[in-house]
Design brief:
disordered N terminus, about 25% strand, single chain, six-stranded antiparallel β-sheet, Phage tail protein beta-alpha-beta fold, alpha+beta, about 750 residues, disordered C terminus
Length: about 750
């Protein structure tokens, strides 16, 4: 409170010295507008020339003041957005000084570090004491029971008496004590330091190693004690496995249950560790830890997958409200907006087979909870008026309809001036804000309870602003590029690959593509075909950004089977490739084949660790190629509801009659099908003669205008024959692939592995 007051006074003194020509006070009500619009209206009201650097011009701002001193209004605006005023001719410009940005970064890192420390301490304390001989014996005995049950069911499966095998390792987990590898991963993270982890941004990935490559970080010296303790604990379990005389047979069927928190039945005593890696990935407020420890001969000695949660939570807030029980009646537009954004979405779940995605359909709420079709409410139609509003988010900000209205009405009810820099974090609070009996206290509580948001009333001002400015600016959705993509989609009538790629490239961060944009594309999916699939592209965001940055000549060269040098990619394309390979939010598998692997791997991590596969980073002399495979698909429609979507060859093949019986009806959702083509573009990145990576994108060639839709059984014979090939491939994959699911437990040992 004291620090804020001092900052406020200092800024007021700076601004106030140059306001001789401005009116003493002003009254202004803007609604939710971009910062550029707010400054334009403030300039008119104050007579000053007001501007900002580009970084601030798109911020979603709200200002509602009455007879407020001009210098205080300007001070509060700068404070809400985390900026400084710089004197220019005739007025001021909002800037971000180096010192202000340094302080903001330091405060954010300190806050995150404290949360990470609490998360690590809670996880470690929850483990209880380290393993002793009795606990190790119990853990191995229970793991053996699970192993025996697994082998028995595998034999039944080979005899054709059971299908898929589900083994719940949680029921056999003996106590809250975790196995050595999981404890070691947490202790290593603590030794690395909370501040180092806190400096990571969402999507960052760091690999710490005892023998680092050029793209890894050396494990700190403090790790030695944790690694020595791991050897002692590991050998305790390994000795017990040996003494009980029932290790997993070499080369036999086995259930690797060490990742589920149980004892590793393959454990063998070691004298000391060779190489150890700890992979740390940040996903929002969760830090995933992956430990891989090898003995001196390069054999796996232990591995663990665990997570540390450092959720921000709501900022502690004390509010003294004048009229806490006063009802707030949000306008009709707010309720209409919420209805459009909260209707059920068609969610997609994926499995991979024979080089193509098999897509299963389910209905889910906006929050992601699955709902049955019988529970789903009819889709709310999008009127022409709402189509205009939704397609112009730079004018009709998504935070204006509910959140902005609630903020403004709280301020009016409490008779205070209001300034807000609204974060996309508040978008999800709209459900809580739309209860029938909404009061000032309920609305204020919902906003104050939003993680990452500061909500306060003091000195006659209501202020809403991000708690962490740097992360807010890195993850805030860009309204201009979203509006351009929506209007292009409405004009074209579909969400094309080029449109999706251009939109991904225009966003300031791939993390920004996680919220409102998916909802609004889904709401407009009857006008933008396949609009609801925007979320399905989330795991390929960096590949989309790379594709968008290929120029016409490079795309043509790839389509003709020619190579494009990695060094010829522009800066944005190379950055996308760098993140695609080494960062956490996107995954591009890298296959490594060397002669050394046939003799016994010189580098045991080369198969599955990207920073080992490319120890010096991405080579500039590498190149990429592309292969296009055209596969059959269909434009499926429902003549009664108007629903439509593209179905792949695998989905359509699954609708063919099953010669063994038990096939489901051709389609419960669609009654008309028009053949079309799916163009699967398989990109191969040749980093070296022995190191490659693959990623694919799919474009859709729609039926020509006037093509006739027919029932499934009346599709052309040749087309159905091609679908039979996909059905056969899918059946082969399902019967020959691994069909065993191990369910990790949460009892006493933290969350299950990712």
């Amino acid at each position: 409170m004291t620090r804020m007051t001092l900052t406020l006074a200092a800024i007021a003194a700076l601004v106030g010295t140059s306001l001789a020509q401005a009116p003493d006070k002003l009254t202004l009500k803007t609604g939710v507008v971009p910062m550029a619009t707010l400054l334009k209206e403030l300039s008119t009201a104050s007579g000053l020339t007001l501007d900002s650097i580009p970084r601030f011009r798109g911020e979603a701002m709200l200002l509602d003041v009455k007879d407020a001193p001009v210098n205080e209004v300007l001070t509060r605006v700068a404070q809400a957005v985390g900026a400084d005023w710089e004197k220019i001719e005739g007025g001021y410009r909002l800037v971000l000084s180096t010192e202000t940005e340094r302080k903001q970064r330091e405060e954010e890192i300190a806050d995150r570090a404290a949360r990470i420390q609490r998360g690590l301490d809670q996880r470690i304390a929850g483990m209880g004491p380290t393993l002793d001989a009795n606990a190790a014996r119990q853990a191995v005995e229970e793991a053996l029971k699970t192993q025996e049950e697994f082998q028995r069911r595998m034999q039944q499966r080979e005899q054709g008496t059971v299908g898929s095998i589900f083994v719940n390792a949680n029921v056999a987990r003996p106590s809250s004590r975790t196995m050595p590898a999981e404890r070691t991963a947490l202790m290593l993270a603590k030794g690395i330091g909370e501040r180092t982890l806190a400096a990571m941004m969402p999507g960052d990935r760091i690999v710490f190693s005892t023998s680092p490559t050029a793209v890894q970080v050396r494990m700190p010296a403090s790790a030695s004690q944790a690694l020595q303790e791991f050897v002692q604990q590991h050998n305790l379990v390994a000795d017990m496995v040996r003494d009980l005389g029932k290790p997993t047979p070499e080369g036999g069927l086995q259930l690797n249950i060490q990742m589920s928190g149980q004892a590793d039945l393959n454990a063998k005593p070691i004298s000391r560790l060779g190489r150890v890696l700890l992979v740390v990935e940040r996903f929002r407020d969760n830090w995933n830890l992956q430990l891989r420890a090898y003995d001196v001969d390069g054999r796996m000695a232990g591995q663990a997958f665990t997570m540390v949660s450092a959720s921000m939570g709501a900022e502690p807030t004390q509010l003294t409200l004048k009229h806490p029980e006063k009802p707030i009646a949000l306008p009709a537009l707010a309720h209409e907006f919420a209805a459009l954004m909260n209707q059920p979405r068609r969610g997609m779940s994926f499995t991979t087979g024979a080089g193509e995605m098999v897509r299963a359909i389910r209905l889910s709420s906006t929050e992601g909870f699955e709902i049955s079709p019988s529970q789903a409410k009819p889709t709310t139609p999008v009127s022409d008026e709402w189509r205009t509003r939704l397609s112009r988010p730079e004018t009709f900000d998504p935070l204006s309809f509910v959140v902005g209205e609630a903020v403004a009405r709280i301020g009016a009810s409490e008779s205070v001036n209001t300034v807000a820099c609204l974060s996309d974090q508040t978008y999800r609070t709209q459900t809580a804000l739309l209860r029938d009996s909404l009061t000032v206290a309920q609305a204020a509580g919902a906003l104050a309870g939003t993680p990452g948001v500061h909500f306060g009333i003091e000195d006659g001002w209501l202020t809403v602003r991000p708690k962490h400015y740097i992360e807010h600016r890195a993850t805030q959705l860009d309204r201009v590029s979203l509006g351009q993509a929506l209007r292009k989609g409405l004009a074209d009538g579909r969400l094309s690959l080029d449109l999706t790629a251009s939109y991904a490239a225009a966003q300031p961060s791939i993390v920004a593509m996680e919220g409102y944009d998916g909802d609004v594309f889904a709401a407009l999916s009857k006008h933008i075909f396949e609009g609801e699939t925007l979320r399905d592209q989330s795991f390929q965001r960096e590949m989309l950004r790379l594709y968008a940055n290929l120029n016409a000549g490079q795309r043509n060269a790839l389509a003709q089977g020619n190579a494009v040098q990695i060094s010829a990619l522009n800066g944005s394309g190379r950055t996308a490739l760098q993140r695609m390979v080494f960062n956490a939010m996107n995954f591009m598998p890298i296959q490594v084949q060397t002669e050394g692997q046939h003799r016994g791997p010189m580098n045991p991590m080369a198969d599955n660790e990207r920073t080992d596969a490319l120890p010096s980073g991405i080579p500039s002399n590498g190149y990429l190629t592309m292969q296009i495979n055209e596969t059959p698909g269909a434009y499926a429609t429902n003549s009664k509801t108007g629903a439509a979507r593209v179905m792949s060859g695998y989905e359509l093949g699954g609708m063919l009659p099953d010669p063994n019986g038990g096939n489901r009806p051709p389609s419960e959702e669609f009654d008309g099908f028009t053949p079309m083509t799916l163009r699967v573009m398989q990109f191969t990145f040749h980093f070296s003669p022995t190191t490659t990576g693959n990623q694919g994108l799919t474009d859709k060639v729609f039926p020509t205008a006037g093509s006739r839709s027919v029932p499934f059984a009346q599709l052309p014979t040749a087309f159905l024959a091609r679908l039979q090939e996909f059905r056969n491939r899918l059946g082969s994959f399902q019967t020959t692939g691994v069909d065993v699911i191990a369910i990790g437990g949460t009892r006493g040992g933290g969350p299950p592995p990712p």
